[in-house]
Every structure is written in structure tokens, then in C-alpha cells.
Amino acid sequence: MNKDFYGSSLGKMQMHFHTTIRNIGLYLSVSLALLGVSRYYRKGSERSRPKQLLFTIMALGFTTNSFLISKYLLSDHKSVLNQYKETEVKNIKKWYIIPYILMCVCLSFMIFTSYLSLNTIRKIIINKTFNDDELIVNDKGFNNKKFNKK
Description:
- It is a single chain.
- The protein is mainly alpha-helical and about 150 residues long.
- The protein has one domain (about 5-145).
- It is built from four helices and two strands.
- The chain has helices at about 10-40, 50-80, 85-90, 95-130, and strands at about 135-140, 140-145.
- A two-stranded antiparallel sheet has the order 1-2.
- The chain is elongated.
């Protein structure tokens, strides 16, 4: 790589590429922090489940945003690099593995966060529907108070 690479248009595009990768990492860090906050509300009462759901959905939003940024970065970068000769861009294409890895990480986060959101919604629905004096709802199933008196 020559000394004036970062002053050229390819160099500026490469700096934009690296900045975008850093921003994707930032979005994933915020998403992971929001998942940690939602875990704090996991052990609480039924009233804290909507808070858990809120933070989990926010984490899903940040993860989806980072996935889309990765996808758009790759497509935009490839379309611009098609204008250059293959010899000029061969050293730049090796960096494409990083957005692909980040897209896989984002996808796994999205699946996990979706599972957590759906599980929390299920618990909220069960507690709202079957929350009376005759029936106790727990994670193992339904227990009837009338027959399980100790």
C-alpha cells in the first residue's frame, strides 16, 4: 500500500468502511447492555415483566439496526468498488469477511432476543388471563390452590 492511499478516494472509502464497522460494534454493545438490563427485571414480580419486554424489544431494535447497517455497507461498498480495476481493490476485498461475521452475530442475537420477547409475552398473557385466587400460574404449569393446600 502506498503512502498516499488514505488521501485517495479508495482510502477515504476504506476509512468510511472501518468507521461503519465500529458503529455496528457500538450498536451491538448497546443491544447487549439492554439485554443485561432486561435480565435484571427477569427475577422480579409479574409487574416487572412489561419492563423486561420493553428492554428486550429495544435490544431487538438495536440489533436489527446493526444487521441492516452491515448489509447496506456490503452492498454499497461492492457497488462502488466495481468502478475500479481489480488490481486496485484486491487488498480491500479481504475486509469483507468482517461484515459477514457481524451479520451472523446480529442474526444470532436477533433470534435469541426474539425468543426472549416471545417468552416474556407468553408469561404476560398467562398471568393476565389466569390471575385469580383459584389458580396459581408458575413456570412449571398450573397448580390449583384448592387441591394443593398444605
